[in-house]
Amino acid sequence: MIHIVIDLEMNPVSKAFKDVRKFTTDEVIEIGAVKLDENYKQVSEFQCYVKPEHGAITKHITTLTGITQATVADKPTFARAFQNFMDWIGTWDFQLYSWSNSDMNQLKAECTYKLPLFDIKRLERQWRDLQKAFDERIGLHSSLALKHAVGAMNRDFEGTQHTALADAANTAAILALLQDNDEFFRVMQPVIDLLKPQKLSQSIGDLFPELSNLKLE
Fold it and tell me: Which of 46, 90, 97, 178 is the most core-located residue (most Cβ within 10 A)?
């Protein structure tokens, strides 16, 4: 079995398309993914910009992701881009991961509207929320943002946040660490200790400056 870690960047559907917004309020504008072998070693990567069909890239999304309307002007629309992604995977013998359930929810909504013949339920059965798995492992009852999870591992975030391939690659590093229970707890023990009730008076920022602006999402 191979392991696929995916991240999506999205743009809101224009309010002018009321019928479309009944199915999905966003459209994928970038797909980024990394493929890991059975030993959780990266063997391949995938990146594709996607041209939205129901509204131009907003200024907010450009600020967040760096993606402009010019970036996607000559790129494939979702149906072709998603097929390219599935062709890159090349098999159904895989486990799919993303950070939080928002990416899977987007694929469900957009595939239902734009690719009604695709078996999205089968894809969903092979998906796992890695954010939830990470939070549960360290005993956190809220959802930790990806950049803070990476920082808690005492790692620098590699690449630019909110670019799909970089987010997928950093998520894959967390997935790999989760496979070695002893190493995971060795790396994460300072954070786990900090979460214990008797130590909650101590600031996370005192121990981990990179988490000083911790935001739970």
Answer: 97
